[in-house]
Specification:
The complex is a heterodimer of chains A (452) and B (354).
Chain A (H helix, E strand, L loop, with lengths): L1 H5 L2 E14 L2 E14 L3 E5 L6 H9 L6 E10 L3 E2 L2 H7 L7 H15 L7 E4 L13 H10 L3 H13 L2 H14 L1 H10 L5 H9 L6 H9 L8 H11 L6 H25 L5 H4 L9 H13 L5 E5 L7 H18 L2 E5 L3 H7 L2 E6 L2 E7 H6 L4 H8 L47 E4 L2 E3 L2 H6 L1
Parallel strand pairs in A: 3-8, 3-9, 6-7, 7-8
Antiparallel strand pairs in A: 1-2, 1-4, 4-5, 9-10, 10-12, 11-12
Helix pairs in contact in A: 3-4, 5-12, 5-14, 6-12, 7-8, 9-10, 11-12
Chain B lengths: L3 H30 L4 H7 L6 H14 L6 H13 L5 E4 L2 E4 H36 L4 H14 L3 H15 L11 H4 L5 E2 L2 E2 L5 H7 L3 H38 L2 H8 L4 H38 L5 H10 L3 H29 L6
Antiparallel strand pairs in B: 1-2, 3-4
Classes of the chains: A alpha/beta (452), B mainly alpha (354).
Bound molecules: adenosine-5'-triphosphate and magnesium ion (MG).
């Protein structure tokens, strides 16, 4: 586990406290969360319903609703950018909380975080069925994510494809076959055809068709030239005229059209059949599984450093669930990106995670490498969760007795104390601190502290 | 989008229009004829005739209009005439002659007036509704809400009078009577008896004849009536749009748009507005009904020679030809717009299929 330590932290959450102000009272959803995410890992986040998993994800994105008060804490991106500073400055003040004031700050935050969201940081929400805009085509919704962050990528793709010749493609094909992907990228660079490599590779990496077919597809890339309207739109863009009313429209149309091609590639990668048709469809025409993949496609299209996936599989049936898990694993392997994978299903997390954090009542109860958590869980809550996982050789499942505390008035001391079989008097008095029991394995429980 | 199914749907809808129009015209026909035959006679008989000649003329007209038959039989004679394209005669102070000619003279003006109003609604109402929701609870939002609620609770003639007092009398910046200042058009070859040629829309005709001073004057005369109409309709639209915008802005897909890093301007004006417009389009059928009634009032208040003005004249002068024809015309416009709106709805909401 030394490797984990050496890796750079891409995200650090310190003592994050968020509460929701509602008519029925103040719900303390996050009560001091400390967590970090390292480059290239999948961090599984587990916990019962209401433990604050989604709230944590939304807080990282800066997408909290207006009634959410950030009482304290930091979310540091790349070790420096403090996402929630503005909301915390207001939320930590000792005044009566006014959602309207908070909303004003949220609006400013939306402007401030625009560049980061979708590019460095992306999230797949828990509700895949309602997350797509019903009146916009699927292809547009994917294309747009690229258009607002990396329009030059679309320009490069379009121009390089327009410029390349059959001879170019043949040479590149040979390079790819004999010397591999790295050499292809170099060769593309040399021929001044940047933007073509991703189009070639997206075909080359496909697993649903055999090699001869791939070759044929790659060699026919030069057939898809730009029409005069697209050329006009792109040249408007390159001259910096995209802010001029009518011209800007032409530029956007041309780039979005290229974005549809990119969307087709992404959907192919995500295993959606007939992607050329699907990009022209509206969300209601797709099944739940397809919509879920479109939402994932939107999240990954810009290759963000961090992707938060909030229960991406819960709404799906088992086969599609397996496909999505496979997808996350392959994304992680191929891109060295970091993921926070939220689920209340530990067996799902076991499949994809490198580390697992267990949340209980707005706090991290235990966090550690996946193997350690499964083989030597320390926190009584984690242990009970493990016993509740259905497996082949278990004869009975042990439900956890008792229920989650009311988050309006969480118990003093350890929040699990009312359900814990090993409860001690001091558990009801003090909150147990996080103790590191072994490399990267931290537990918040007095039992662990005792033994040390 | 345009499929066989769509055409079948349109055809079915048009077939349903027929009984609606029959019902509407029958009702008005009966109401008008309840007053007896004298009205009809008064309209067609030459007032200078007396004695024997007058009796003969009455007999002839009774035969021609089947006045000795029951009302519903008369209605079917009328309907038969309408179906052959004969809408009868109108006899009002502003025009006497065939109804069909009256329509070609007055309808274009009303169309232009409505288009101007629609443009104002589009340019002012929709942005206000969106702005109000996006900046909810701000002073601007409060202001817009008071503004739209006030308008909403005002009858249209009150809006007209308020505008006349404010812009026409107090500030004295805009004309508020007729379609043009009379001295501007005196002696023009293409303007006779209050009617301009060839399109009968003064603004367009003036431009066609290169007379931009008259065109400008006609344009100024258009502002107040169209603004009145626009304000009356806008009130409802702002309220509906604001409410539906607020609802849409809470949706998951708006959060996703933000999570993608789409600029706020685009989130509001594309992602949210396109969805929020759906209830506005749905309610537009009622709006158009209100608009038609509004046209009658507005054109009368501003002496604007359009179809509404003519209708008022017909009503005031017991002009049966005019009353029946405008009833039919307004009915057709209303049912056709609801049909068109249904089709528009299918375009803006991809979930609707016929
Ligand atoms: N918008 C909101 N307004 C008020 N309370 C909220 C809001 N969102 C979440 N909460 C409350 O915050 C707490 C944490 O909710 P959260 O959605 O983060 O839980 P979760 O772990 O994601 O649960 P689940 O597994 O059901 O998705 C809950 O008590 C919930 O009722
Ligand atoms: Mg959740």
């Amino acid at each position: 586990m030394e490797r984990v330590k050496e890796r750079a932290k891409v995200l650090e959450i310190k003592d994050l406290r968020v509460s929701f102000h509602t008519r029925r009272g103040v719900f303390k959803a996050l009560r001091g969360v400390d967590l970090e995410l390292y480059k290239g890992e999948v961090l599984g986040l587990a916990g019962e319903s209401g433990s604050g998993k989604s709230t944590l994800g939304l807080a990282i994105m800066g997408l909290l609703p207006r009634n959410a008060r950030v009482e304290s804490g930091e979310v540091l991106l790349d070790g420096s950018k403090d996402v929630l500073k503005m909301l915390r400055d207001y939320g930590s003040r000792d005044v009566k909380f006014d959602p309207r004031k908070n909303e004003k700050l949220i609006k400013r935050l939306n402007k401030e975080l625009r560049e980061v969201r979708g590019r460095a940081l992306a999230m797949v929400f828990q509700e895949p069925l309602t997350s797509l805009n019903p009146v916009l085509q699927v292809g547009y919704q994917i294309a747009e994510a690229v258009y607002y962050h990396d329009p030059m990528r679309l320009v490069r793709r379009a121009i390089s494809r327009n410029r390349c010749t059959q001879a170019d493609l043949r040479d590149l094909m040979t390079t790819l076959k004999t010397k591999g992907e790295e050499a292809l990228i170099e060769e593309v660079e040399k021929r001044n055809l940047r933007g073509l490599e991703e189009q070639i590779l997206s075909i080359w990496r496909r697993q649903d068709i055999h090699e001869a077919k791939k070759e044929k597809l790659i060699l026919s890339l030069d057939k898809h030239k730009l029409d005069s309207k697209d050329r006009l739109g792109i040249s408007i863009y390159l001259r910096g005229l995209q802010r001029v009313p009518v011209l800007g429209r032409l530029a956007k149309d041309a780039l979005i059209k290229e974005g549809y091609r990119l969307a087709v590639e992404i959907l192919t990668y995500l295993g959606i059949p007939h992607p050329e048709k699907v990009v022209r469809m509206y969300p209601h025409e797709l099944s739940g599984g397809m919509r879920q993949r479109v939402v994932i496609g939107i999240a990954i299209v810009n290759n963000p450093e961090i992707v938060i996936m909030d229960e991406p599989t819960s709404a799906l049936d088992v086969t599609i669930q397996a496909q999505i898990l496979e997808l996350v694993s392959s994304l992680k392997a191929s891109s060295n990106r970091s993921f926070i994978f939220i689920s209340h299903d530990l067996s799902v997390l076991a499949e994809v995670s490198d580390r697992i954090a267990i949340m209980y009542a707005g706090k991290i109860a235990e966090v550690g490498p996946v193997k350690v958590i499964f083989e030597e869980p320390q926190h009584p809550y984690t242990k009970m969760l493990m016993d509740a996982i259905p497996t082949m050789d278990k004869t009975e499942l042990k439900a956890i007795p008792g229920s989650v505390p009311d988050m309006r008035s969480p118990p003093k001391g350890c929040s699990f104390s009312n359900r814990c079989p090993f409860v001690m008097p001091k558990c009801k008095e003090m909150e147990p601190p996080m103790v590191e029991v072994s490399e990267g394995h931290k537990v918040a429980c007095f039992l662990v502290g005792e033994r040390k | 989008m345009i499929s066989i199914k769509l055409w079948v749907y349109v055809l079915r809808r048009i077939l349903i229009l027929i009984p609606t129009l029959i019902g509407l015209t029958l009702l008005v026909f009966v109401l008008v004829h309840i007053q007896g035959n004298n009205l009809i006679l008064a309209e067609y008989i030459n007032p200078r005739l007396t004695g024997q000649a007058r009796e003969l003329e009455i007999q002839r007209l009774t035969q021609e209009f089947h006045l000795d038959q029951p009302v519903y039989v008369q209605y079917f004679y009328w309907l038969g005439q309408v179906l052959t394209g004969n809408l009868g005669y109108t006899n009002t102070p502003i025009y006497s002659g065939p109804v069909t000619t009256a329509i070609t003279l007055f309808l274009p003006n009303t169309v232009v007036l409505s288009l101007f109003a629609a443009l104002l609604i589009w340019l002012i109402g929709i942005p206000l509704g969106v702005f109000s929701a996006v900046n909810r609870d701000s002073p601007a939002d409060q202001g817009i809400r008071v503004f739209s609620f006030t308008l909403y609770s005002m009858p249209i003639y009150l809006i007209a009078i308020a505008l006349i007092l404010l812009l026409g009398v107090y500030l004295n910046v805009l004309p508020f009577s007729g379609e043009v200042s009379p001295q501007m058009v005196a002696g023009l070859s293409w303007f006779r008896d209050g009617i301009s040629y060839p399109t009968h829309v003064l603004l367009i005709d003036a431009i066609l004849h290169g007379d931009y001073a008259v065109a400008w004057n006609a344009f100024l005369h258009l502002i107040m009536p169209s603004l009145t109409l626009a304000l009356a309709v806008m009130a409802g639209i702002i309220r509906i749009l604001r409410a539906s915008m607020l609802e849409v802005l809470e949706q998951d897909y708006i959060r996703l748009a933000r999570a993608k890093g789409v600029p706020e301007r685009v989130v509001n004006n594309l992602h949210a507005r396109r969805n929020a417009m759906l209830p506005v389009v749905t309610s537009f059928g009622y709006t158009v009904a209100g608009l038609l009634g509004g046209v009658v009032v507005v054109e009368s208040v501003f002496d604007f020679p359009g179809i509404g003005y003519w209708t008022t004249q017909a009503l005031l002068n017991n002009d049966i030809g005019g009353i029946m024809a405008s009833t039919l015309l307004f009915g057709i416009v209303l049912v056709l717009t609801t049909l068109i709106l249904d089709l528009v709805y299918a375009v803006v909401d991809p979930r609707i299929r016929y």
